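We treat protein structure as text, and this decision shapes the records that our systems exchange. We quote a single record here, exactly as it is kept in our systems:
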Amino acid sequence: MSWFPKLTETFVLYEMLAAEAAGAEVELYPLRRQRETVMHAEARALMDRAHFAPLLSPPVLWANLKSLGRRPRTYLSTLAVLLRRNWGSRRYFAGALALFPKAVYMASRMRRDGITHVHAHFASHPAAAAFVIHRLTGIPYSFTAHGSDLHRDRHMLPEKVAAAAFVVCISNYNKEVVLAECGREFDSKVAVIHCGVDTTIFDPNGPAGVGPGGGGATRGTFAILCIGTLHPVKGQAVLIEACRKLRESGLPVICHLVGDGPDRVALVRQARAAGLEGVVHFHGRLTRPQVAALLREADTVAAPSVPTRDGRREGIPVALMEAMASGVPVVASRLSGIPELVEDGHTGLLVPPADAAELARAIARLQASPALRNRLAAAGRAQVIQAFDLRANVRLLLEHVQQPSRACSVKPVELV
């Protein structure tokens, strides 16, 4: 993965732990160390095991000299592919230059340690590193394409897909994006495996549970919870505007924003200008148990995702899965793969992206009908248990890892 430990990437952390629980031996190779002030307890336990390495160091330089001396053609052609296929993308080209030496070092470590398969989270730099490792060692690799890593920039994606043993997309929507970019001939090696959540942790009957339709509504104030990085792609500004409309119409709502990010100052300013001080609460970064506890006190969870000007867009927010597993009715944007989780009127409510008026109407509809909240909550949890359960989906991933040759019948594209 790009960074570890990263508080917001629970889907990476808990997938690794579930894979180990299922019997796989997992080694962790982060591209960069994240300096977090808040960390999941499970991530702390993995820190000592993670194979961190600087971008450049004597061991990294030595690994590159050895690789160049032993297989100069492979070393240089792999570097050439990275630079040529990422030309035109400043971010990917700079990343390829910076991360190539470390990827070569990781390749030598993995070969020495007997690694048999590399799985990368994100179609961006991590998939490029896995590509390098595969070219230098022959170790098969796969990668998961999530959201902005796929939608924002697809330089070198065809080469990454062609060389991979298989590719995981977290939604059918993402699979269609990959095939449109790389060709329908790769259909057999692109699998849809949803991210998943632990439905025993996110459970409406957990500690301090109030059950579906409880939360603030029983006290006269309707509690809205929104979980995610404070970033334009998450749409918190749309939610704050919806809250302004709801309060203006006389509906007593309270909004809890969990997370931190570059938009925090602007969002605080927006809430203050809208007269929502004391209505919109900023909780900052929270751990999984803290989030689970807040979910049990929420009347609804909103995920008002919007596509951004630079091409970012959500995959399927894990926060929605956590909410639905917790028996909380959800309101989300009709965007990307979200409708594969939230079926409008059945497992939740969908609204157009960036439409504060429609978002407000959907929240008001939930507030007015406890029966609707209960029905959506029950169907939402059933949907997560059926298709978005962490353990079941990790087993699917491991089945692909154990049979990588099944997807290698497609002839790779010419790389050099």
